[in-house]
Every structure is written in structure tokens, then in C-alpha cells.
What does this fold into?
Amino acid sequence: MLAVIGGSGLSKLANLDVSHREVLRTPYGEPSGAVTFGQIRGCPVAFLARHGYGHTIPPHEVNYRANIWALSKRGAQAIVSVASVGCIRPDLKPGDVVIPHQIIDYTWGRKNTYFEGHDSGVVHIDFTDPYDAGLRARLIKAAGLAGVAVSEAAVYAVTQGPRLETAAEVNRYERDGADVVGMTGMPEAALARELGVPYAAINVVANYAAGRADSLNGIHFDKLEAVLAESMGRARAIIDSLVDCGDPAGS
Ligand code: HPA
It folds into this structure.
């Protein structure tokens, strides 16, 4: 079964034929909300809204451990994250869709591992390539089949939030090699790797990052919302085309 975690602008999957919802409990507390189960083109898919269904959970308060644990234990063989980002790289613009290939983690204070030592032991996962290569390739292919143009690689800077960045911070992230900036990519990706679940992301560019282009003097939130509303359909189209019952990780 494929599982999708939706971020800002994607609190439900319009193309999901819903069968039921389940409230799941985990040793790490409660996920962001009930998990919605259903089918897309006859294939089973699970969906979870990262910020809760009423968008009440800020990025630093999301229970990433419970979310990934619940999806994994309920049978997710692959997890696709959908998240909005600001763009830094000059060829990107609001509305663009990006399949990131790397992460720089600037977050702090989040529960970022299932292995906290003592009874749960000490485990060092390999995270050289934070996203699953096979799932990334399938997302890129699915985008092509759906006729959605995507940027096939990007370095995603993950910030703590919930505030947006200063212009100087964005300049620093660019010097570090980041192409886009968001708040939820970590520890989600690392937790999926710890549980051995293939994980990849679709990032929708909602705005120019702080201090850039039309965000030179500030972020325009009304514009950002409008861009997300217009662009999330493309993320849905990629997921729709990704779903494949013949492939255990795609169904
Ligand atoms: N910065 C961080 N997170 C974001 C942004 C941004 O500019 N846009 C959407 N999510």
C-alpha cells in the first residue's frame, strides 16, 4: 500500500475513493489525525494530513514519529510526502513542482529517532541519499506520464519554523547549496529510513524565499495561498499516475 502525507494545501486527496478512517495509537503518541484509507483507480492508498485536518499543528509540533510509525505498522510499503516550499534557486518560481534529492537539516529539538539508546539501542542509519532512489525515479516517471513538468533534483533546506526565514538566512542556505526551503522534511525522511520504508517527496513551490524576487520586502501570504490552491492539483496528478497495483510499493 502507498501512503501519502499531505502538507499545507493538501489536507485531503480529492482523487481518493475513501473507504474508512482509523484513529491509530503508537508507542510515540498520537499521529496528526485519523488515517484515511481508500482506493485510487482500484489500488489501496492511505492518506494522513501532516498538520491535522483543521491545519492546527505547526511544523515543530508535528508528531513525526507517530505519523511514520502508524503508516508503517498499518502496511505502508512506500511513503510519499507532499510539502510546500519557498524557492531559492534562480530557475525555480512559484507553482513549480520539485522532486528533491538531498536535504540539509537546520531543525532542532525535534524527536528525530526511534532509537534513543538504552532499551531501544543505538542505531546509525545510512542517510547519504535521504530519499529512496527507486521511489524518486517512479515519481519522476509518474510526473512525465501525467504531463506535469518537474525539477528532477533539488537540495531541500529544512528550517525549524513556524516563522519564515530572514533574508540573510536564505542567503546562507543558498551558500550552503540549498535550492528550496521548507519546514517539515525532517525528521520525517530519517524516521522512514529507520523503519525501512521507502520515502520520497513532492515539493510544491508556494513562494520565492524571503528576500528574493517578489518576496524582496516580505512574503505575500495571500499570493502564497492562491499559488498552493492552484498547484496542488499537479501533485495530486503525479500521485494518481504513481499508483500501480502491480507494484507493492505503488499500491
Ligand atoms: N520557507 C519555509 N517554508 C515554506 C516556505 C518558505 O519560504 N514556503 C512554504 N513553506
